[in-house]
Design a protein that fits this description.
- The complex is a heterodimer of chains A (about 625) and B (about 270).
- Chain A has helices at about 20-30, 50-55, 65-80, 85-90, 130-140, 145-160, 195-200, 215-230, 270-285, 295-300, 305-310, 315-330, 330-345, 345-360, 375-385, 395-405, 425-440, 445-465, 470-485, 490-500, 505-520, 525-540, 545-555, 560-575, 575-590, 595-610; strands at about 5-10, 35-40, 100, 120-125, 165, 180, 185-190, 210-215, 260-265, 290-295.
- Chain A is an alpha/beta fold.
- Chain A folds into 3 domains: about 5-330, Rossmann fold; about 330-425; about 540-620, no CATH class.
- In chain A, the strands form 2 sheets. Chain A has an 8-stranded mixed sheet with strand order 3-4-2-7-1-8-9-10, with helices on both faces. In chain A, strands 5-6 form a two-stranded antiparallel sheet.
- Chain B is globular.
- Chain B folds into 2 domains: about 5-140, no CATH class; about 145-235.
- Helices cover about 35% and strands about 15% of the residues of chain B.
- Classes of the chains: A alpha/beta (about 625), B alpha+beta (about 270).
- At the A-B interface, helix 3, helix 4, helix 6, helix 7 and helix 18 of A face helix 2 and helix 3 of B.
Chain lengths: ~625, ~270
């Protein structure tokens, strides 16, 4: 898995090849896919990108410092030491809000997928209105020697890699939840040509290069020479000119600095000529990863096609370039792992998750991540956690499940069988998760915050559900949450609403009687509890839980004979799990009230002699 | 009346108004059962806490005597023992502007400090970058001192390396605003003076420093400022790091093989 952020330098030997506009188009596209992107305008002597963003009101007012300042500060810092640690760069270089400018929210690309939150899109521009020439002169980057370029590059790199921006986390997440996020991508717009500023951009500051080159000889020759010089491709063994290299094999790029080549701009039409020129380009500098076609609008007026002209062919080409960049850093499993890692799934759950993932065949679950099925990853993780929800017992897993349920589609991923969960609802499941989570803390503030959020979620679902079966199914969820929080009167009220309604399925009526019976039972109203448990059994004769509590309620009322009768009945139909549950409840009862000691002991003896019988419907 | 029903109280604001970038103040609490409000201060000599009617509370908030928070905060458990027992520690509201926290490298706002959970709430009628939380008095002092120390650390680094005067003034101002303990406040005053225009230094000393440190003399103050200047100028804030000389005499191309230079943080020499 790549460390984040991945720093890409966009370089071109000559200007006018569409490098800066490609950068901005890809950045907008990535942000609309939920990635956090930071752009550095390091084209110090010709800051076209900053000018474009300012003229078009893509960004707001400049910050206190800009890119020229940052390089000066890094140069001053690295002038006095070999290697500045993260802590040193953090306090000696500007803080985020003093240098980063955010793109205007109303200028952002609309997010296509409602489940993916838009990413952050920021820039460190060059402020041409604040002593630009004098500051540039003062910086004197032309006098930097090689070592200094490397040291300054390393200093800025360390600062970038440690940058994090705060994110709002709901209070109920608790104090240990992550409160800041790093950028996913940093794009550097480099100076063209063979310059110190360009050297700074392509040196150790960046992880990868994206090199733009048009198809004319001047560009191809210059780019080849430059890539040789900086060590991306090996030097030519003989001094053939490019035009004679048609038959030479495509040079393999040295892999120390992964480099993508973008042919841009490629003319429209002229198919044969174009093919020939692309071949020349490939023979000179290696495989061409992406192609951007000439577009008249781009040549006359710079534009963000990925936002403003999605119907144009150039937009598709920018999207292909975006995909190409994404593929370089995020494999499918990487992406899933990253999400799991970022969300902080506990080691035990991570292990289970790996087993869970490998249990799917590639045919049944396609894990390929792209714009359309990214959602599936969230669904799969949420489904995994749903299957394991009863064993979740620490904050990080509760938190991850909450996050995943928020992102989860109502649709279950194809290939996953969930027929037994026909009423699965992510919002209700979130409420139940929050309720369980609230019970796991001793902090009263956190407990209340999670519990109140759970109730608000249920209420939001009730508000949107018309009266009828769906509405009552939500109510039964709320009753369960009230029960967990010992708010028995409220649980009774919700269950009574269900019981009093007409035309609801038997299973729902049975659940309502059972929950109300249990609420009565917990309040010590055993007579009412017995009636409800009997009704619950009546509407669902196979429900062993009602029978189990009926036995206990009879015991508590002193109706030993009825308790015995139902106990024998229970033993005839019980499965090992039911027996364990009964033993547990009897022990709880025994601890609570020692008066029943003898009766309970008698039952426990019978239980110990119990042997499983064939499963058959419970008929009384 | 030291014993009050703690679960019946919730914090809804703070005494006074946030006029600077950070600070602390007594909490304002509301009794859930009747809506009456009080300034939550540990009573002395078993005096009762005096509660104000909801109408009075509204008028205090309207006139800026109290500042309301958005939402409520539970009284920190570290401040009392048992649901209806008395206070064991004085609760305090601590407020801070994100601009200050950003400079102290403490954004996002801490979720806990000194073992106490911090729930941050926006303040009604103030910029959205200002938030307040409640904790014990001891923790609030330690937290503010920590911010001040971090701000002074940044100040030292910038004084040595970059000397952006406006920025240094801002850092010194923030550090002074945060400092609680006497020693730190003196250090913050010295840094504040170090970056002021000469004519302002005496005025600051007479108007503020002397009020807090009546034993200080102007001559001694001047000497300490000079010493601090020498100290910060002549000693890199990170003295364990050596200085490397640039190789100015090389005739090799500056960019030769530069793309193959592994970054400092690379696990091996080769770029992964």
């Amino acid at each position: 898995m790549m460390d984040t952020p991945q720093i890409f330098t966009f370089y071109s030997f000559k200007g006018g090849v569409g490098r800066s506009m490609a950068l901005i188009n890809v950045a907008y596209s990535l942000a609309s896919k939920g990635r956090n992107v930071l752009i550095l305008d390091m084209d110090l002597e010709a800051p076209g990108l900053s000018g474009f963003l300012r003229r078009n009101h893509e960004i707001g007012e400049p910050a206190r410092f800009d890119m020229v300042d940052l390089i000066r500060f890094a140069a001053e810092l690295s002038g006095s030491m070999n290697q500045a640690s993260s802590e040193i760069t953090a306090i000696s270089l500007p803080s985020l809000s003093d240098i980063v400018v955010s793109f205007q929210p109303d200028r952002r690309t609309p997010v296509k997928d409602e489940y993916i939150a838009p990413g952050r899109l920021d820039v460190i521009p060059i402020d041409e209105d604040r002593d630009y020439y004098s500051r540039l002169n003062q910086l004197a980057i032309g006098h930097f020697d090689r070592n200094r370029l490397i040291r300054v590059g390393n200093t800025i790199r360390r600062w970038i890699k440690d940058l994090g921006f705060p994110i709002e986390t709901p209070e109920y997440y608790g104090p240990t939840a992550k409160r800041s996020v790093k950028y996913d991508f940093v794009f550097i717009d480099s100076r063209t040509g063979v310059t110190e500023a360009g050297g700074l951009c392509i040196g150790p500051i960046s992880d990868r290069l994206v090199v733009f080159c048009s198809l004319n000889d001047q560009n191809v020759e210059g780019t080849r020479g430059f890539l040789e010089e900086i060590g991306v491709i090996p030097p030519r063994s003989h001094s053939n000119s490019i035009v004679n290299e048609h038959e030479n094999p495509i040079p393999k790029r040295i892999d120390t600095k992964p480099t993508m080549i973008v042919a841009s701009p490629v003319p429209i039409g002229e198919i044969e000529f174009k093919r020939a020129r692309l071949k020349i380009l490939e023979s000179a500098i290696g495989h061409v990863d992406s192609v951007l076609t000439y577009h008249p609008r781009m040549s006359l007026m710079e534009s963000i096609f990925t936002r403003d002209f999605p119907e144009e062919y150039l937009c598709n080409e920018y999207e292909k370039l975006t995909k190409c960049i994404l593929d370089r850093v995020e494999s499918d499993i990487d992406y899933v792992s990253k999400m799991m890692h970022q969300s902080g799934l506990s080691p035990e759950m991570s292990e289970k998750f790996r087993t869970f993932l490998t249990s799917f065949s590639p045919e049944s679950v396609k894990l390929h991540i792209n714009e359309s099925d990214e959602q599936m990853v969230f669904d799969i993780i949420a489904f995994f956690l749903y299957k394991n929800r009863t064993i979740i017992n620490n904050d990080i897993d509760y938190l991850l499940y909450d996050i995943m349920l928020q992102k989860m589609n109502v649709k279950i991923p194809p290939g996953i069988q969930v027929s037994t969960q026909r009423d699965f609802d992510p919002i209700l499941e979130r409420a139940e998760n929050l309720s369980r989570w609230s019970l796991s803390t001793e902090d009263a503030g956190l407990h209340n915050s999670r519990y109140e959020t759970a109730l608000k979620l249920i209420q939001s679902r009730l508000d949107k559900t018309p009266p009828g079966e769906g509405y009552f199914r939500v109510l039964i969820h709320r009753a369960k949450i009230y029960m967990d929080h010992r708010q028995y009167d409220r649980a009774i009220s919700d269950c009574t609403k269900i019981i009093d309604s007409m035309n609801i399925p038997s299973d729902l009526r049975s659940k309502a009687f059972f929950s109300r019976g249990k609420a009565h039972f917990m309040l010590g109203k055993n007579a009412e509890a017995i009636l409800d448990f009997q009704k619950s059994s009546h509407f669902n004769p196979n429900d062993k839980k009602s029978l189990l509590f009926l036995i206990i309620a009879y015991l508590l009322c002193g109706k030993d004979r009825q308790a015995e009768t139902n106990f024998d009945l229970f033993l005839r139909v019980a499965k090992p799990n039911d027996i364990e549950e009964l033993k547990f409840e009897l022990n709880v009862l025994n601890q609570r009230n020692p008066n029943y000691d003898d009766k309970i002991k008698g039952m426990l003896v019978k239980i110990d002699q119990w042997k499983p019988s064939e499963d058959r419907p419970l008929v009384r | 009346m030291k014993c009050i029903e703690m679960n019946d109280l919730e914090i809804v604001g703070m005494n006074g108004a946030p006029l600077v970038e950070c600070g602390r103040s007594l909490p304002v609490a509301r009794r859930k059962s009747d809506g009456f409000h009080c300034v939550l201060q540990i009573p002395k000599d078993d005096e009762p806490i005096s509660f104000e009617t909801p109408e009075e509370a509204e008028s205090y908030a309207a006139t800026g005597r109290w500042t309301k928070i958005q939402g409520t905060i539970q009284i920190p458990r570290s401040c009392f023992s048992g649901d209806s027992a008395g206070f064991t520690h004085q609760p305090m509201m601590i407020f801070a502007d994100d601009k200050l926290l950003d400079q102290a490298d403490r954004l996002p706002r801490p979720g806990s400090f000194n073992g106490e959970r911090l729930v941050w709430r926006r303040l009604d009628g103030y910029d959205e970058s200002i938030h307040a939380a409640c904790c014990s008095e001891e923790t609030s002092a330690r937290l503010l001192d920590e911010w001040s120390q971090l701000l002074m650390k940044r100040f030292n680094a910038w004084y040595y390396y970059h000397r952006d005067q406006d920025y240094l003034k801002r850092l010194a101002d923030f550090a002074l605003c945060a400092a609680i303990s006497r020693g730190l406040r003196w250090k913050a005053y010295l840094r504040f003076a170090l970056v002021q225009e000469p004519e302002k230094i005496r005025r600051t000393f007479d108007a503020f420093t002397l009020r807090e440190f009546p034993d200080a003399s102007w001559e001694r103050y001047k000497e300490e400022i000079k010493d601090l200047n020498d100290f910060l100028n002549n000693r890199t804030p990170f003295e364990h790091l050596s200085v490397e000389k640039s190789d100015d005499t090389s005739t090799e191309s500056k960019l030769r093989g530069i793309a193959r230079v592994a970054p400092d943080d690379a696990p091996t020499k080769a770029v992964a």
